[in-house]
Amino acid sequence: MFESLTGRLGDVLGRLTKRGALTEADVTEALREVRVALLEADVALPVVKSFVKRVKTKAIGTEVLKSVNPAQMVIKVVHDQLVEMLGSEQQELNLVAVPPVVYMMVGLQGSGKTTSTAKIAKWLTEKQGKKVLMASLDVRRPAAQEQLKILGEQTGIATLPIIQGQMPVDIAKRAVQSAKLQGVDIVMLDTAGRLHVDESLMAEMDAVHKEAHPTETLLVVDSLTGQDAVNVAEQFKSRVDVTGIVLTRIDGDGRGGAALSMREVTGCPIKLLGTGEKLDALEAFHPDRIANRILGMGDIVSLVEKAAETIEKDEAEKLALKMQKGNFDLDDLASQLRQMRKMGGMNSLVGMLPGIGKMKKQLDSANLDDRLLIRQEAMIQSMTPKERRNPQIIAASRKKRIAAGSGMSVQDVNRLLKQHKQMADMMKKVKKLGKKGIARGGMQ
Ligand code: GDP
């Protein structure tokens, strides 16, 4: 998978790393080639455009960290944007709903729907310890129900007995009833496909969906059909609430266009990859691992990540030292605010920082969100260096200027100064308590 794209990107970005200093022209040239490589990999044009634009903005706006070179930074930016394009976080199957949980499999004929049904059922049984029942709702293709029955026998997974002439909605109903009686955890409904998306297929899918209330509606698409796979996904999504995509025949897909465009175009997460005909050829879709596979430059990416971590650690250590000395000025507050923003904003950090935990309630009631962090930084930036080191010298007239300079009110400036004073006082207390105090001085 992705062989050709990996080769092309490797060439382009590899050439960058051979340069000493990197100019904007080098980056622009490299991105032009990245663009061609993505288009040749059959990635949708709007996705390519927005990808290149994002990489460019980020690459130009990113500070180059100590101990890495600009080309390595660009590679890291390309990697991060690839991860984002692929959907950022891994999206897992929902296993936690109240049993019997229903998974409905939808997709065109030949996409690999029945095979994927059996693969997922096998994975649920063997790896998750679930009791699974499979049922084929495909009454159109004569051998479809038989095919699932055979796969059930091969894998040792129960299938719903076939009743000739029963209609899809009734089969779905029977499957759920029988699952309840037998204490089944997950029922997998393998619906009928068609050669093309048509109205009768969509109507049948709707009816089954209404009857079975699936927790997961998994759309199976064939990656070898490239952009058609993305179009098919759009059509299905417009009619039924698709919760995830299973992308099959990845093993034969050297280009990867469908995998790369799917998330951005449809907004639907890819949850699983079919990687072969065998029933264990199924993989979870991890955006970061896929990006690593595509770029093939894992070493550089982790090098840059380590450099970034070290710098954050340095800053945090400096701050901790100042706190221990009981000396915490507005520059330190600004640096703390900046770090909080970088590390995932207010909510993830409240409680972790000395002093802030105690004020959490107060901050919550003041509706402290990430925008406020930015505004507070702006107020501090509007002060003179002397004022930042020594806030008590800020007179009323200066408060007005600071408020005007940062687009805030005098009350906001007062609130900030009060917050800083509380924190600084607390730091002083910490100092008195000594080292032991920092560890368990009741700060939280
Ligand atoms: P359905 O009509 O959508 O139910 O498609 P099937 O499940 O019957 O699959 C059609 C063909 O594709 C079968 O020969 C499968 O073995 C094959 N197939 C399914 N998934 C994969 C895959 O991930 N990789 C490969 N190489 N073949 C697959």
Automatic annotation (TrEMBL):
<keyword id="KW-0378">Hydrolase</keyword>
<dbReference type="Pfam" id="PF02881">
    <property type="entry name" value="SRP54_N"/>
</dbReference>
<comment type="similarity">
    <text>Belongs to the GTP-binding SRP family. SRP54 subfamily.</text>
</comment>
<comment type="function">
    <text>Involved in targeting and insertion of nascent membrane proteins into the cytoplasmic membrane. Binds to the hydrophobic signal sequence of the ribosome-nascent chain (RNC) as it emerges from the ribosomes. The SRP-RNC complex is then targeted to the cytoplasmic membrane where it interacts with the SRP receptor FtsY. Interaction with FtsY leads to the transfer of the RNC complex to the Sec translocase for insertion into the membrane, the hydrolysis of GTP by both Ffh and FtsY, and the dissociation of the SRP-FtsY complex into the individual components.</text>
</comment>
<dbReference type="InterPro" id="IPR036891">
    <property type="entry name" value="Signal_recog_part_SRP54_M_sf"/>
</dbReference>
<dbReference type="InterPro" id="IPR027417">
    <property type="entry name" value="P-loop_NTPase"/>
</dbReference>
<protein>
    <recommendedName>
        <fullName>Signal recognition particle protein</fullName>
        <ecNumber>3.6.5.4</ecNumber>
    </recommendedName>
</protein>
<keyword id="KW-0687">Ribonucleoprotein</keyword>
<feature type="domain" description="SRP54-type proteins GTP-binding">
    <location>
        <begin position="269"/>
        <end position="282"/>
    </location>
</feature>
<dbReference type="GO" id="GO:0003924">
    <property type="term" value="F:GTPase activity"/>
</dbReference>
<keyword id="KW-0342">GTP-binding</keyword>
<dbReference type="InterPro" id="IPR013822">
    <property type="entry name" value="Signal_recog_particl_SRP54_hlx"/>
</dbReference>
<keyword id="KW-0963">Cytoplasm</keyword>
<dbReference type="InterPro" id="IPR022941">
    <property type="entry name" value="SRP54"/>
</dbReference>
<dbReference type="GO" id="GO:0005525">
    <property type="term" value="F:GTP binding"/>
</dbReference>
<dbReference type="GO" id="GO:0008312">
    <property type="term" value="F:7S RNA binding"/>
</dbReference>
<keyword id="KW-0547">Nucleotide-binding</keyword>
<dbReference type="GO" id="GO:0005886">
    <property type="term" value="C:plasma membrane"/>
</dbReference>
<dbReference type="InterPro" id="IPR042101">
    <property type="entry name" value="SRP54_N_sf"/>
</dbReference>
<feature type="binding site">
    <location>
        <begin position="107"/>
        <end position="114"/>
    </location>
    <ligand>
        <name>GTP</name>
    </ligand>
</feature>
<dbReference type="InterPro" id="IPR000897">
    <property type="entry name" value="SRP54_GTPase_dom"/>
</dbReference>
<dbReference type="GO" id="GO:0048500">
    <property type="term" value="C:signal recognition particle"/>
</dbReference>
<dbReference type="GO" id="GO:0006614">
    <property type="term" value="P:SRP-dependent cotranslational protein targeting to membrane"/>
</dbReference>
<dbReference type="InterPro" id="IPR003593">
    <property type="entry name" value="AAA+_ATPase"/>
</dbReference>
<keyword id="KW-0733">Signal recognition particle</keyword>
<dbReference type="Pfam" id="PF02978">
    <property type="entry name" value="SRP_SPB"/>
</dbReference>
<dbReference type="InterPro" id="IPR004125">
    <property type="entry name" value="Signal_recog_particle_SRP54_M"/>
</dbReference>
<comment type="subunit">
    <text>Part of the signal recognition particle protein translocation system, which is composed of SRP and FtsY. SRP is a ribonucleoprotein composed of Ffh and a 4.5S RNA molecule.</text>
</comment>
<keyword id="KW-0694">RNA-binding</keyword>
<feature type="binding site">
    <location>
        <begin position="248"/>
        <end position="251"/>
    </location>
    <ligand>
        <name>GTP</name>
    </ligand>
</feature>
<dbReference type="InterPro" id="IPR004780">
    <property type="entry name" value="SRP"/>
</dbReference>
<feature type="binding site">
    <location>
        <begin position="190"/>
        <end position="194"/>
    </location>
    <ligand>
        <name>GTP</name>
    </ligand>
</feature>
<dbReference type="Pfam" id="PF00448">
    <property type="entry name" value="SRP54"/>
</dbReference>
